From TrEMBL:
Organism: Leucogyrophana mollusca
Domain of life: Eukaryota
Identification of the protein by name: Uncharacterized protein
């Protein structure tokens, strides 16, 4: 954990690069050591660590020779890799070689039904540790999820986890998953990404309703151009925008009470062809989610995708009446 507890202090090593949500690091600034301020001797390093025995950093940082003083003071005995399904098998080799004398335990946490190792779309041979049969057979499957409402959890279990994922959740109302038919929404190319202006309008309207009700919500979309456009419109509407809107890849591992999804596409399947990424997108809500999309698109062109199958599973009653949306009735 990250914190200032005297019993289990931790520190974070990070590179000196800009990040989209840079403001989040301000919340733990006392525990962050930037690469451009790494000390050149053990004494200065010890002062920076403040007695921390838990160090958080990226896999690439573990291979960086700049951290030599850190690992002399805090020998690496246990490595815990979060989101390990996104790490290609070969990327572990430098780290395992470097710490072979001190390493005692290796823990890998991940889900091979969510984001794949970077580049697998182009190089299909890339594999994570969970996709190696000899190692997968020894993996422990955590078979109960507590995040998603029953209607979402049971659908995901059937469609993605072969019915093996159980749901333990107090919300069983089928209205925890709703769709808004953005009839006039059209996908438009913007650079190397896509936007849908009509969906932006609907998303901001829903965000305004949630904000007025004091509800905790986040907005997720597959395309970065759409994320940027939504943020811009939230600002124009004088609504909270920082830490509110994310693309799918940046939101894996995160969750929120209420999720608003903007699918963007209205003509071609695009992103929705990737079941693993779609799985991430559909599994972030703790109380409910509203999916903004074109009904004709998800029931025709995208009918065979995970979200198309969700439309069928949720039934006609999952589609919100536009009059209710205008009147501010989200349930």
């Amino acid at each position: 954990m990250i914190g200032s507890s005297p019993f289990n202090p931790a520190t974070v090593l990070r590179t000196n690069f800009g990040f989209r949500h840079e403001h989040l690091y301000e919340q733990m600034s006392e525990r962050i050591i930037r690469s451009d301020s790494f000390p050149a001797d053990a004494v200065a390093t010890d002062r920076l660590l403040l007695g921390a025995k838990v160090v958080l950093c990226t896999l690439s940082m573990l291979s960086n020779r700049q951290i030599d003083f850190f690992i002399r003071l805090v020998p690496v005995e246990t490595l815990i890799f979060d989101e390990a399904s996104q790490i290609e098998v070969g990327d572990y080799i430098p780290v395992l070689h470097r710490f072979q004398q001190t390493l005692r335990k290796l823990v890998l946490i991940g889900d091979d039904k969510q984001l794949a190792p970077y580049g697998q779309d182009d190089v299909t041979e890339l594999q994570s540790i969970f996709e190696l049969p000899r190692l997968r057979n020894r993996a422990l499957f955590l078979d109960t999820q507590y995040r998603m409402p029953v209607v979402v959890g049971e659908f995901i279990s059937r469609q993605v986890y072969k019915g093996k994922l159980r749901t333990d959740h107090r919300i069983s109302d089928p209205r925890a998953c709703r769709f808004v038919d953005v009839q006039k929404g059209k996908e438009e190319k913007m650079g190397h990404s896509w936007v849908n202006h009509q969906e932006v309008t609907v998303v901001v309207h829903i965000a305004r309703l949630y904000h007025a009700e004091g509800k905790s919500y986040r907005i997720v979309t597959p395309y970065d151009a759409q994320r940027s456009l939504i943020e811009k419109e939230l600002q124009s509407a004088k609504l909270p925008w920082e830490d509110k809107c994310f693309n799918v890849d940046s939101f894996q591992g995160n969750e929120e009470d209420y999720i608003i999804l903007s699918i963007v596409r209205s003509n071609k399947v695009g992103f929705l062809r990737n079941t693993r990424r779609t799985n991430v997108m559909l599994t972030r809500c703790k109380r409910s989610m509203i999916i903004c999309t074109s009904r004709s698109f998800v029931t025709n062109v995208a009918a065979s995708t995970l979200i198309g199958r969700m439309v069928v599973a949720m039934g006609q009653e999952a589609w919100m009446d536009r009059r209710d949306l205008v009147r501010g009735r989200l349930l």
